[in-house]
User: Fold these one by one.
Assistant:
Number 1:
Amino acid sequence: MTMNNKVLLDGHVGADAELRYIPDGTPVVSFRLATNETYIDKAGERKTSTEWHWCQAFGSLAKTLGEYGTKGKHLRIEGRLRTREYTDKAGVKHYPTNVVVEEFKFGPLASGDKKPAEEVTGKASTDQSAAEALDEDIPF
């Protein structure tokens, strides 16, 4: 039996993506993606709930998202969930779950965009070594 770990999100970038490099020189980008759900509560009022997702990408995807992943941009991503473990300075264990981006596409153009949406897309290679190296380098 094959088990899949697949995530598809459609949302907006919460703050400018942060690009950095791990010791082996691989680019890594981190950003938050906000997704919204609209519903009607028991009183009949329209409500919106926002969920925040921590996302990371590696290699050429990281470079592109680092350049174009600015606050407010509409972004569709496909990836997988990755939960890591680390212990903070106080000795408390944490288990953050991030989305590792494997493909993305920016949504409709907003004013001030550098490139049309159809030109700013990306797909990850199958090399997982950068994601594994990040486990040892960045505990968050």
Number 2:
Amino acid sequence: MKYVTRVADQSFEIEIDERGTVVVDGQPHAVDLQEIVPDRLYSLLLDNVSNESFAEGGQAGHFRVLLRGQLYHVQVEDERAIRLSRALTGFTPDSGEIPVRAPMPGLIVSIPAQARQPVRQGDLLVILESMKMDNELRAPRDGEVARVHVAEGDSVETGQALVTLS
């Protein structure tokens, strides 16, 4: 699995393969991470150097990490989230109706949006489960939900209209 991690103004591409090998920007590293206190304290062996790390957060991929006495604000996105974001950020007209389409096949888990509901850009419209991961589909612009084309529990295909905004 590939991740893009942002720390301050730097970006790192991290790949973790099925054997647990960690490659950061093309450089392999020996890594062993063990959780000591759930969701808080970790023992980290990085290239055979022992570290104790505190981490908190996780909301929308944002973390605060204390490592070697330095506090880092970290944002992590996996390759699926990046592809999904790119698929949803094409040209969006300022007016008229636009459909919000399924970027991949999956199952509709939740539909927070309702017909005639005003929405702001970034508001959550639909949650689509695909490959055991929930994908949040958000409004590409301000507007109003004109129609909801699906119901919870529906299976959808790539490109199928889920919600239409006006």
